[in-house]
From TrEMBL, chain B:
Keywords: Cell membrane, Membrane, Transmembrane, Transmembrane helix, Transport. Belongs to the binding-protein-dependent transport system permease family. It holds the Pfam family BPD_transp_1. Its main location: membrane. It comes from Devosia algicola. It comes from the Bacteria. The keyword DNA-binding does not apply. The keyword Nucleus does not apply. SUPFAM superfamilies: MetI-like (SSF161098). This is Carbohydrate ABC transporter permease. InterPro entries: MetI-like, MetI-like_sf. The chain crosses the membrane at residues 12-39, 85-107, 119-140, 152-172, 193-218, 253-275.
Amino acid sequence: MVGRPTGSANFQLNSTASFQLSTSSQIVSDGKFSQSATSGAMQKRAAVRERAVWYLFLAPAILLLALFMAVPLYKALELSMYEWKGLLPRAWVGLDNFVELFQDKYFWNALRNTIFFAVAATVGTVGLGLFLALAISRRVPGHGLYRFAFYLPVMLPNVVAAALWTRILEPNFGLLNTFLATIGLGFLAQPWLASIDLSLVSIIAVVVWHYAGFPMIVLLAAIEGISEDLHHAATLDGASEWNRLRYLIVPMIWPVLVSISVVQIIFSLKVFDIVWIMTKGGPADSSSVLGTYLYKRAFEQQEFGYASAVAVAMFAVIFTVTYLYYRLTKVNAVEY
Amino acid sequence: MKHSLANMLRPSGILGVIAQILLLVWLFMTMYPIVYLFFTSLKTDSRILNSPFSIPLSPVIENYAAVILGGRTNQSVMIYMMNSFIVTGGALLVLLAASSLAGYALARGKFPGNQAAQQLFLLALAVPAHVLLIPIYFFFGDLGLRNSQIGMILLYATLGLPFTTILMRAYFVSFPKELEEAARLDGCSMFGVFWRVVLPVSRGALASMVIINIGWIWSELFFALALLDKLDVRTLPLAIAAYRPDAMATETVIGELFAIMSLAVLPLLIFYLVFQRQIRKGMTAGAIK
């Protein structure tokens, strides 16, 4: 799954809407007569009817959410309390799965890897994205090309980025090791994805390559939103590069920086595709994350009850982080 | 921006030189793997292994011919591609319809439960899709929706709903009411206002919603892997996964894998080339205020 950034939006009206606005105000004043003619009872009935129509507008979305999200969520909680292996009948075991989960070193390993992955990938993508945005915002020669090129990897499907880099990192014929050998740095060559020490780090590097363009464009928009006057003032005051960054740019884009970081963390906690394609969690579970662990327990070992407990634990982690983010940014019914 | 400001911001001295060098390095880092992807798809396997950096001056189309005829996935890549188009297109259509209707009701409607409904969409946004996989797998089995494109379309539309609806509501809140009121007084029904007045001027916002959702739906693997086990309904990501590009293996069909990947990238790449400005703007709007 690709990250769907969380948060609020700020749309600009397009010009057609504001143009038609001016012509429509006349019609409103013309129509006032007919409105005053309606009786109170009719108005009440109209209000009830209007309410019903609003519910109809909401119905398709609510129906989909109920059917494919709420019910499955409830079922997942229920299943996590059953032991259900393969074709054997399922048996209710209460919280046994969670007790087992607590002592499952593979689960803790996956959780640890997931958190490490999320933090490192976020620092990497947002850090690199910030650097790129800062550099491009200075109107360096070729900034249009940079803007285009740096976002390009974001357009690649996860599976493609993963499979492509799997080939590049392949130990014997892969591009990276061949390149290192060609320039005389062959001693640096590594079995990147086949090494217990390097597999997770290699995957994180690929994720940074893949997604740095996303925080970049968001931060770039924030930096370019800083008013020219402030830059002028800073220049007239003779502020150094560092001070301008420290006291002008970073404070101005701070809220965006925080939001994009949390969005990246939440999104990274859900990682699956890229790990599945590149290592399947291996070697020796060194790159196992919650997503791949859950998938393996469910569809390779047919332990649907226990896998559901893993899923519920994952849900708890991500739901908590997201909820804290709402509290942090005081998102409440999304106000603008 | 004013020209003077552009000059003023342009970095000078060592800092500027270092920044420029790093930008060029990253430019190479982002562009080369993508160029390599397309080049490799035009080479024979022995050329791929023996001269990985070479430019395919005499490109071969064998890899593409092989995957179109079936290749290692036992089925023409055209069928995978068609399935991906159907599922992505269908999901976007359902998603846009349901989210714009709901977003409009949440923005305009005065009815009991509006606030609660908004909270519900926010809560749904916090639910990771992974927790739904196992129940959906059995649920789809019971309903006969496993290996069904309709099932995938409804599922993907649902997964995109919370976020897209919240964005659509935000858009409609900022949309001028006067236009709709005028149409209402002219005797237009509520749905008529929505369909004939509001939607036509909201094309920009709808396009943004397509931009935000098209990428993840096109490349979705987690659910597809579990729910689509019949060959004839599989989507492109499954074709790529079927090649199992293992880290240590010396595949004998690397060229075919690269041909399939090139074909999977191409639609999104063309989309990006044509709409790059709108895409970058749309993604920014979708991110944060």
